[in-house]
UniProtKB/TrEMBL annotation:
It holds the Pfam family TPR_16. Keywords: Signal, TPR repeat. The keyword Signal applies. TPR repeats lie at residues 213-246. It comes from the Bacteria. SUPFAM superfamilies: TPR-like. This is Uncharacterized protein.
Length: 294
């Protein structure tokens, strides 16, 4: 499992030419929280370079930041809120974060317009999907990611990243790992509804990147949590074939074989796990379970 996406706003870095000046002016105005200057830069930038994808990124960032709200509520059960209490310990209310709907919709519309201008810009696709994760709208998030991968397959054109540069790593590695990062918040929720979102994301990943081990790995985890051990085993075996000697996969294979009562197979996976330094702590725990098997 990889780390969480570290960004909410899309990154905007300087490139050569006049666009660089707009980006520098925009960044300085944003850092100074000079709203009037930001709007002026964005207006001039759009007039001079109406098809610049990075204008859409900048305007999206501006609108998204402007839409952010901290909400203090007398409702202690406010979804996603931090509850605060009275001196007697009783809940008094909550503090939660949110987004002003009209501005958030405008931010999303800006990014969708940018995607139409530059459909190969994966950073914009991911940024749009992230906004739906932020507002707990997984169906819309999945829709955005599905459209992105389908468009890539249909066009045959390689993905571009920030400033139109190449992806930071090979597509076959970068996109699956990024897709897995979208699964992590839902894994962390630890409930059946969120697990279904993971399943859909993993199946989407497997459809468009069938060579990646991450789709069967996450699906194997999904079915293990449902105690569908045989199906889980088959998926972890696929993950192990695609990426041998991954300690997490080997640990899960060992665990599933234990649950199925397959002592010999569990011992074989345990032996492989022990050879990996990062897998030895898990191997120590699993070996205890194997010793208890009949």
């Amino acid at each position: 499992m990889r780390k969480l996406l570290a960004f909410t706003l899309l990154a905007l870095t300087a490139v050569a030419g006049r666009a660089q000046t707009y980006q520098i002016d925009y960044r300085r105005a944003m850092q100074a929280q000079d709203t009037a200057k930001v709007r002026k830069v964005l207006t001039t930038w759009q007039q001079k370079k109406p098809q610049d994808p990075d204008w859409y990124v900048a305007n999206f960032n501006y609108l998204l930041k402007k839409s952010y709200r901290v909400v203090v509520s007398a409702d202690p059960d406010k979804k996603g809120g931090v509850v605060f209490s009275k001196p007697d310990g009783k809940a008094a209310g909550s503090i939660s974060k949110g987004y002003e709907p009209t501005l958030l919709a405008a931010a999303r519309a800006t990014l969708r317009d940018g995607i139409r201008v530059a459909p190969d810009r994966l950073d914009m696709r991911f940024g749009l999907a992230k906004t739906y994760e932020m507002t707990q709208e997984p169906a819309a998030e999945i829709e955005v990611l599905t459209a992105a991968l389908a468009d890539r397959q249909a066009s045959g054109k390689p993905w571009r990243w920030r400033d139109g540069a190449a992806l930071p790593a090979a597509e076959k590695v970068f996109v699956p790992e990024s897709m897995e990062e979208y699964m992590l918040p839902y894994w962390q929720m630890q409930n059946a509804e969120a697990d279904e979102v993971v399943r859909q994301l993993a199946e989407l990943l497997g459809k468009y990147y069938p060579e990646s081990s991450l789709a069967p790995f996450n699906l194997g985890t999904y079915y293990a949590q449902k105690k569908e051990w045989q199906k889980s085993l088959e998926l972890f075996e696929q993950a192990n074939t695609r990426k041998p000697n991954d300690w997490q996969t080997l640990a899960n294979l060992t665990k599933v074989e234990i649950e199925l009562g397959h002592k010999t197979q569990a011992q074989q996976y345990l032996a492989a796990l022990r050879k990996l330094p990062e897998g030895r702590p898990a191997a120590a725990d699993l070996s205890k379970e194997i010793r208890e098997m009949k």
